[in-house]
Every structure is written in C-alpha cells, then in structure tokens.
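queue> pop job 88
queue> type: inverse folding (structure -> sequence)
queue> payload:
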C-alpha cells in the first residue's frame, strides 16, 4: 500500500485494516501467522496507534486473534467455525439474492456472464477463480438495498475465504460450481426469485458438505 493510498480519505486505521484484510482473505497472510504491531507500523510508516486500531477492527471481524502488547495472529482453521459460517450463509444468502432479483439490470446480467466465462477458463493454479467466484455472488448483493444484511454477508465471505480455497481444490468442485452458477444466472434472467434462491441454497450446501467430508 502506497502513502497515497493511506491518505485517500479513510482514516489511517481503516486503510491499514483494509490492506491487512485483503492480505488475509487472499492467503498472503496464512492461518496462524503472526502480525507484529511494530513491524506493521514500520511497514506503513505510521505510529503503533492506528495499527492497534486496525488490528482491533480485524479482531472484531473474526479474522485475527489479538496478542496483548504484541500484535495479532491470523485466526487458524476451525471446523466448528467453518460449519457455523456455512450454515449462516445458507440461511442469509438465498434470502438476499431473492430480494435482489427485481433490482438487477441488463448490465448486471452481461457482467455476470462475462465473469462466468472467465471463471470457466481459469486454471486451478492462477488463483483467479476464487476472486471471480466472489465477484459473481456479490454482484447480486450490491443490488440488495439492505445495508445491514449486505455487511453481514460480506463479513461471512471474509471468514469463509480460506474454507472456500480448500473447497476449490476438491476434485470436481469447480466444474460443479460453474454449472450451478450457470443455473443461477438462468433463473435470474427469468426473474425467478424463488428458483434462484433454491439453486443458491443447494450450491452453498454442496460447499459445506464437501468441506465436512474433507475434514
């Protein structure tokens, strides 16, 4: 993150938290890895105060565990947390997408089709599939018009990233997900809110079942 980015309008703590969050959810900071407060402050050229505030925000989001007077550690994988996150997503996201269907525009549909085409061409090694997967799903939630629900879903996606990464490496997972995405898009084009909610529910349960079998 450049100095210009740090002073782009957000507070220092918010900017640092956003950058660290991105590094955590993309796996650049691994589960269990320490985040040393002094080292982070030196890296960004700031005092320890905004770093401490940033780490506290990440702790509140469930991404790190604080270490008093030292910094934090990226939260390790947790079977119970994985199941809880998956179950919450299964309840909230079908409701959200059903609410969003009537607000989706032709431009959204075109963008979604382009995203799916790129997903289907991506290789397991390039890391793009997970980012495109989130982009596809959150495209609909951006039309939701329910900010509290939207924030909750965003937080669940942050927590779920590492589990989704494990799922994406499961044999056949990508191919099945790509098919489910196509079915979702077809239902959205028809304006069939109940159908797309049902397909998304199946899609999310498939992710959870695959992860639980792999534990």
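queue> result:
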């Amino acid at each position: 993150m450049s100095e210009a980015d740090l002073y782009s309008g957000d507070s220092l703590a918010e900017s640092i938290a956003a950058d660290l969050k991105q590094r955590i959810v993309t796996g650049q900071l691994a589960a269990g890895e320490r985040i040393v407060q002094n080292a982070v402050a030196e890296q960004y050229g700031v005092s320890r105060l905004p770093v401490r505030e940033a780490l506290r925000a990440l702790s509140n989001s469930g991404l790190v565990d604080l270490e008093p007077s030292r910094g934090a550690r990226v939260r390790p994988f947790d079977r119970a947390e994985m199941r809880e996150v998956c179950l919450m997503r299964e309840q909230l996201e079908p409701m959200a997408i059903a609410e969003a269907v009537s607000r989706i525009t032709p431009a959204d549909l075109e963008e979604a089709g382009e995203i799916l085409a790129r997903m289907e061409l991506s290789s397991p090694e390039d890391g793009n599939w997970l980012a495109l997967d989130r982009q596809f799903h959150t495209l609909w939630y951006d039309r939701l018009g329910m900010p509290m629900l939207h924030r909750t879903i965003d937080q669940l996606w942050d927590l779920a990233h590492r589990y989704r990464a494990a799922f994406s490496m499961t044999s056949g997972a990508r191919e099945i997900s790509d098919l489910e995405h196509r079915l979702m898009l077809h239902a959205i084009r028809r304006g069939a809110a109940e159908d797309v909610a049902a397909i998304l529910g199946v899609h999310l349960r498939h992710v959870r079942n695959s992860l639980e079998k792999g534990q």
